[in-house]
Amino acid sequence: MESKKNVIQKTIIVLLLLMGVTNLSAQILINAPTPADNPNLSGNSPWTAICAGNSGFNEYFVNVTWTGTTNSGNEFILELSDSSGDFSSATELAKTSTQNANTDFDLQFAIPTTTRGQGYRMRVRSTNPAATGSVSDAYNMYYMDVTTNLNISELGNGVPPGTICNPTSVFLQVDNIANPETYQYIWYRSGTELTGEKGHTITATTSGMYNAIIDYGPICTGSGNTDSNIVDVTIGSSSNGISINPPSKTALCTGESETLSINITDPNWSYQWFKNNISIPGAIASTYTVDAANPGFEGDYQIEITPAGGCPEMSTAVTMSNADNFTVTRVNPENIVVLPSQPETLSVTTTAISPTYQWYRNNNPIPSETNSSLNITQDGTYHVSVTQGGGACPGTIKNSENTIAVVPASFEIVVDYQSAYTSCVSTTTQLEMITINAIDGSGTKTDVTTALQNDFNYQWQIDGTDVSGATSSSISLATPNENGIYTLNANLATYNEVSNTLPVQLLTSETLAVNSTSTVYCSSGDTVTITTTTDLTGASFSWEKDEVSVNTSSEALTVSDTGIYRLVVDRNGCSLTSNEISITPLDPNLISMDIDGDVVFPEGSSRSVTASGGTAYRWLNQANTEISTSSSFTFTEEGSYTLIANIDNCEIVRPINVVYQDLFNVPNVITPNGDGANDQWVIPNSYSNKSDVNVIIYNDKGEEIVNELSYQNNWPSSSTSFPKQNMVFYYVIKNTSETLKQGTITVIR
After folding, report:
1. Share of residues in the chain with pLDDT > 70 (%)
2. CB atoms inside a 10 Å sphere around CB 341
3. Using CA atoms, how far apart are residues 458 and 471, in angstroms rounded to an integer?
4. Most exposed: 174, 320, 428, 446, by fewest CB within 10 Å?
5. What is the Cα–Cα distance from 341 to 447, expressed in whole angstroms?
6. pTM for the complete prediction?
7. Which helix (H) or strand (E) is 8 found in, with range?
């Protein structure tokens, strides 16, 4: 007895043969996919749930069965619903186009990494014909992207806390995986599941041993290996009501101190003082002394107690401040240049109450200088001491910042290009003074640009000669005539300084253009001439091929080879480069026509053909008589014609065969017996030799034996064997958009 699969295959073949030249619509019925065994794993059992992700594993199989007939190019596509079984936004898991002759096959797939749920379903659909199969049962499916132990802590810092004690509650959270809020969890207290606690955080109000695990459903959770650490939570007794006794003062002056103390004590308590939420080393008594002599003593102070067997308790904070907190602000620049007979003024402002002043030079007091400002004529390091005369802390002294005053032995003037500049590339540039340094007798430099840049007189020079009108701290240059070596002279009082040098080599803004008689090199006997409209008389220049000089004397270049050509001219020591001209070899494919193969049309009608890609055209009939010079020609008679197309001075010749359209039908019988008559399947010229027409021939088993574009009327070949008499084949003739012809071919031997 024949197998069910053979019966189905033969049925399909019979249906194909019965189609003839009439279109038939294939029908198909697809069953719900069912779990299948993974042949790459030991054992032989289909999966019952999908728990993917452990060590990256994500390979599963389903069994697909179907009945009916598929069309050419059909694909079977396995789809997955969402976690509730809804296919409105189905996910494609796998697809195949190789099972159209197999009605029972296994299909490999992997689930998306976002899959988490207990209600996923699958289905299979086909594309040609378009059909959707039955829906599978619901399955637990989880991609377990986290398969390592969780960490839970109170602070979210990744450190297991071990034991936590708190009078009222403890906040715990998962803190060692990315986006923990996107998962569901199972929380336990002393081994008992806490119903309803599914988030990545929990507030513990009852003492116990707390731990968590990611909820991967009733089947997969155990294989996820996500068990967290255990946190021992103790919820202590009510608050003892501790606080810090009100201090006698909270604002301290220099030299003062204040002792803070807890309001109640207990010999069974341990103590720890904190400043700005940070424990103070060694401060473990019931009192703590805040000393204003310690820099940065200001802040918030608290005390924490830990009863024996109880939970720590923290007091509210007491804020201690600095009563001496007034400011002294320097008004003048940090660096001052003192010039002969030009005193400089130093000054400060202060928020001190009833201040008094004393100025110092090199840390020595300056007699009688007791104002907020000071006029100086000497170099040195200056500051002022400010004494507060009133307020909570009279007598407090603060010093201003130092001011460094120099009497320079000389100045350094530094000039530079204002923006990006490249020699013989830039066509404009601007030079500017960027720095003035005062140099003392020891060679130490002090930047005094801000203080003195407007006090100097300037003069730009080129090659040692003054530039007329260039008397500011910058100069703009825009022509090659201004090329040279630039310096800046700067004068102030008795100082006459010269800057560093800046060379300027600007490229002309002139455009150098070259043109050619052609860009196509036809043959070895051809020549192309490249010229320029720029006058090269007396100029130094070079014609270059592929950036290599080939001629330095001819104002026009005769080209006898392909390559990239350009002209380089010397302009004031800079190379001015022209546009490039690419001379390429003749490519016959540049000429195209809007026909494919022969020109075919019914006798008594006409067909127009258009050529493109050339600069001129000549159409010749079979007598070589010119019949047109336009880019298109309309043929009315069959015969052999010629198109001669020009690309500049090059000619390309294209023969054109014009034939009347075959009026016979596609044959359905051939007799390949070698007698030269009807030995091959010859189809009309409206289908043969066409690059956009696809000819497909199937044997009696539904197998493709011919699949060609531009069919050459050459099937069967002389070597083709036919094992049976009167064999029947099926053909389809189509283009990209439609089926043009289809039917049967009977081979009679």
Report:
1. 96
2. 7
3. 5
4. 428
5. 21
6. 0.39
7. helix 4-19
